[in-house]
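Can anyone check this?
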Amino acid sequence: MSASDLLRGIGIVLFITALAGAIAYVGDRVGHQIGRKRLTLFGIRPRYTSTIVAIATGMVIALVVTLGAIAMSQEVKLAFFQLNAINSQIEELRAKAANLEKKVNTGRLIINTNTPITPTLALIPRNAPPKHRLEIVARYFHDTVQFVDQRYAGKGGPLKPFVVPGDIGKRLGALADGLPMRADVAQGNVLLLAVADQNLYLHDQIHFGLTIIPDKLVYPARSPIQSLRIPASKNVNVQLAVAELEEIVAAQAAKDGLPPYFAIFVQPVQYLPSLAQMQAIVGKGTGKYIMTAFAAEDVYPHTAGVPVIVTLEPAPR
């Protein structure tokens, strides 16, 4: 319990105590006045009449205050009329949390969240009309369902089949003609990629969502992406240096707008000079060298990776 919750609870208790005192006082004064005037109710003796009026006054005041609190506070309304439902929801959430914790600690993770769940992409051409966009989105969705069910939920598969929502038509229509899609397709081609929208553990039901990716140019061919300075030494392993450069390039590509699940696929397609020559140069040379990764071709999201040309040259003195 936090300090603010504790202070709030104490304040409520004090308020209720003060309110009870005020109600008792008002009821007592009203009953006293009725008794002094010797009024009767339904022929009852004045002494009993004053008592009944005092009790009724206190009840009316309490009722008015309670109704006012219910009208003004959603929390009070929930406490009065939906407390059992709230407690049931809390218990249900606790059970789900315990189940998730058990999965995280002991379960077998099959697919990480935000991981592509299919190797294929769908391309929506620039300025494609709404009907054509919807056709592409719907076809890609159904192809993805067929693929993931066959791959992950087939005979002996680790996951349960995907359950198509009843309102899938409405959802796909909203994706195909939503503001993000319209804005992106007006500027260029758009890609669709199916990714897991949560961690999927053994025997979980398959879940995925469709992600919109503007297919914009990230790196023109032959443009430098990142460099790595390495010292000349017989102890330097050029292959390890290349692996380190690949990690740097992946981080830079993600920063420059390439989706992370594509940026991690850095693929050297050419070495200038060759790896063996690089190793010989670094081993026999002096000073420092710069290893640079250049884009081997125009790099877009649809390239699904970062093909690079790796060069080595002496660092400027």
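Reply from J.R.: I decoded it. The two ends are 63 Å apart (CA to CA).
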